[in-house]
Write a structure and sequence with these properties.
transmembrane; globular; Polysacc_synth; 23 helices
Length: 499
């Protein structure tokens, strides 16, 4: 069901992104991207590892009522702190330091995004509970509602602007986009909270709060730095370049989101399942490798398509981003490496080795920020040889992810003796076949037109799956089972079963 949500959200997201970048404007999208980066960087107190503590607590059989009332209080406190931090930062930047932004509208965009981040924080309350209880349908439905509302609104406004029914300038467009995001996430949390009733919320328990803090403390620094790590690159790109470059970077991130979300759909229940497997060493060790193999199998055809056809896919949304299309290659590879590393970080968290996760995250953040400051600026003390421009942000992120992936794997191998799964090596054959087909098509057909590109991409996935079946990485029966799993009717029936 979560895979269905990811697929539908991905399709709707692509359509919405097309209407935004084509008809509302690439620069307007850049203003939104900078606002996301600025506010997102200050979103460092979003979770602090408390969601992992909550999931682990409920998965271990704790009282739902006591756990939920304590966790809700934590999320409200963190959300309130975020609002204060953002408003204070803006006031200090503009009124005390007397600094400004590239465009004055960026100040308003950041303010308009505050509800978006506040309710994104609050979503952690309901989603953590659904994750611990393995309630995939209840996690899926609110996300579908949000994506449908947000992207439908993008399409309507984009169409009205295209046919000159309304006039949307670059500045106004960026502000409108930020407001839509905030409204959609308010709706997202409202629906997610309502379908989980009754919550039976009472007074927070101080003893449980101390327990959560003991578990979350090692993750707090890494969680905060990871949030900064995922947003500061957009701020750096905007500082050294301009809104179009920032928009191109964020658009590429949105394009590869389908890799992240579909992989996360398979990963989301790793932690509660690993907690329940701790008593069985053999099951635990086998599951880590098998989860990695499955995530890799489903992610690779999308990753290969994005890497080989990066120019044509970027051009579908707007020709203004053609010169930045290489970002899509590096961000796709980054999404894949991050996805196949998830089982290893979850395995460490399940064994309460949160301090290891925290330390590795800190190293990765340092690497990413340092490389951003080296590769993104036009020059460093007049030296231009290593500057990659805005593309440097994607190279930096990929490098940091590769570094952290190596550290996670090494630690799990050292502690558990779990090595690299041989099953993934076999997947190189279908990858090579798909990549060769796409490369030939790109050289012969030059598929800028969606009517040519779509069949080519579909055929490449069929080729990939064909080789995967021949190599016994997956069976035809499993493919059809996967197709049946993404039946929308399963969400409704699933929510009934989860009561």
């Amino acid at each position: 069901m979560l895979v269905l949500q990811s697929a539908v959200n991905g399709i709707l997201g692509y359509i919405g992104l097309f209407f935004v970048t084509r008809f509302i404007g690439a620069t307007a999208y850049g203003y939104l991207a900078f606002g996301m980066g600025f506010a997102g960087t200050l979103f460092f107190m979003n979770d602090l590892g408390f969601s992992q503590a909550h999931i682990r607590n409920i998965s271990s059989g704790a009282s739902f009522r006591e756990a939920n009332e304590t966790f809700l209080a934590i999320k409200l406190l963190l959300g309130g702190i975020f609002v204060i931090v953002v408003i204070s930062a803006l006031l200090i930047w503009t009124d005390i330091l007397h600094k400004g932004f590239q465009n004055p509208v960026e100040f308003d965009v950041i303010l308009a995004l505050i509800p978006y981040y506040f309710f994104q924080n609050m979503l952690g309350f309901s989603n953590a509970f659904y994750t611990a209880r393995l309630h995939s349908a209840r996690m899926s439905f609110p996300g579908l509602v949000e994506a449908t509302f947000r992207n439908s609104t993008f399409i309507i406004i984009g169409a009205l602007a295209h046919f000159h029914v309304i006039s949307v300038g670059e500045a106004l467009g960026g502000l409108i986009l930020s407001i839509i995001y905030s409204v959609s996430y308010t709706l997202y949390f409202t629906v997610s909270y309502l379908i989980g009733r009754p919550w039976n919320i009472g007074r927070p328990r101080l003893t449980l709060l101390r327990s959560y803090m003991a578990f979350a403390l090692p993750l707090a620094v890494s969680s905060s730095l990871s949030t900064v790590n995922g947003n500061i690159d957009k701020v750096i790109v905007q500082f050294f370049w301009h809104a179009d470059a920032t928009g191109a970077f964020y658009a590429s991130q949105r394009i590869v989101t389908i890799i992240t979300t579909m992989s996360s759909s398979l990963y989301i229940f790793f932690l509660p399942l690993f907690v329940r497997m701790l008593g069985s060493r053999e099951d635990f060790d086998t599951s880590v490798q098998e989860y990695e193999r499955i995530v890799s199998l489903f992610a690779l055809p999308i990753v290969v398509a994005f890497i080989v056809m990066h120019l044509y896919i970027t051009n579908l949304f707007t020709a203004a981003y053609d010169s930045y299309s290489e970002m899509l290659m590096f961000l796709s590879a980054n999404a894949y490496i991050a996805a196949v590393t998830m089982p290893y970080s979850s395995a460490l968290t399940a064994e309460n080795k949160t301090w290891v996760v925290g330390r590795i995250s800190i190293y990765a953040v340092i690497v990413n920020i340092a490389l951003n400051l080296l590769l993104v600026p036009p020059s460093i003390f007049g030296f231009r040889a290593i500057s990659l421009g805005a593309t440097g942000a994607s190279v930096s992120l990929l490098s940091a992810t590769l570094f952290s992936s190596f550290l996670y794997r090494y630690r799990v191998w050292r502690d558990k003796g779990i090595g690299y799964p041989k099953g993934i090596t076999v997947q190189a054959v279908p990858v090579a076949a798909q990549a060769a087909f796409l490369y030939i098509c790109s050289r012969v057909l030059h598929p800028y037109d969606i009517l040519i590109l779509a069949p080519v991409l579909a055929a490449s996935v069929i080729i990939y799956l064909g080789f995967a079946v021949l190599l016994r990485q997956i069976t035809i029966g499993q493919i059809f089972m996967f197709i049946r799993m993404v039946n929308p009717k399963r969400i409704v029936s699933g929510m009934r079963e989860e009561r």
